[in-house]
Amino acid sequence: MALELRNPHSILATLQARSGDVEVIALPPRGGGVWGEIATRAQEAGVPVRPVETPDERREGRRGGRSGAAKQGREGAGYALIEERKAETLGALLERGEGEQGVWLALDSIQDPRNVGAIFRSAAFFGVRGVVLGENRAAALTAVSYDTASGGLESVPFAVETNLRRALTAAKAAGLWILGTSEHAEQSIEAVPRDRDWLLVVGNEERGLRRLTLDVCDTVCAIGGRGAVGGIGGVGDVEGQEAPVRSLNVSVATGIALAMLGRAG
Q: Which domains can be identified in the chain, with CATH numbers?
């Protein structure tokens, strides 16, 4: 199924990584900047390019029974229709970077596609080797995810697994250490050893990691907050005050955790 992307950085990243999966690009009226680079690369790759439909053309398309690729979003905004990127097998994902220390990532029941996209953007920035996505009770990789990732979904390989616990067990057998995350954990991420290959697991926006996922983790850590409003992960509370902020958005927490794991020990 084709996805309609609106973020020009996501579109450009797809053109650079797999131009053959770009069906068509519709350029906005003022197509400078990144859109100008998109037009040039599309022409070089032989990808069809056309202007964005006018409001009259869009209305005519609806009357004619066509879905109209640009019927949503800002009027006159550019877009591209792309094919979804294919997932890798878990085995191929775990073999990436073999012999070199690195970090992998797993998502346990993340339900907001924007959070998924933001996590992929952080994963690309911090050089994550691969992402394992749980399939059940989790957001699919939608156009919103691709746009929020701003190109991250094109540079970080991923596998989609129906049984995340089994996938984590396979990762352990392949030599990775499983690091769970929880705001209730006693150990700070600052104390996590840096001299091993970690697979960082982050959980659902409301409930966190499932019990079956926690059971397979080698260790579980929290991110300690130091702000005056209270602690993150139960650390750093102001004495005698109820902390109004007790946790971070999962995509923010993931970025912090990846940055911490990437620091020299």
A: 2-83 (3.30.1330.30), 90-261 (3.40.1280.10)
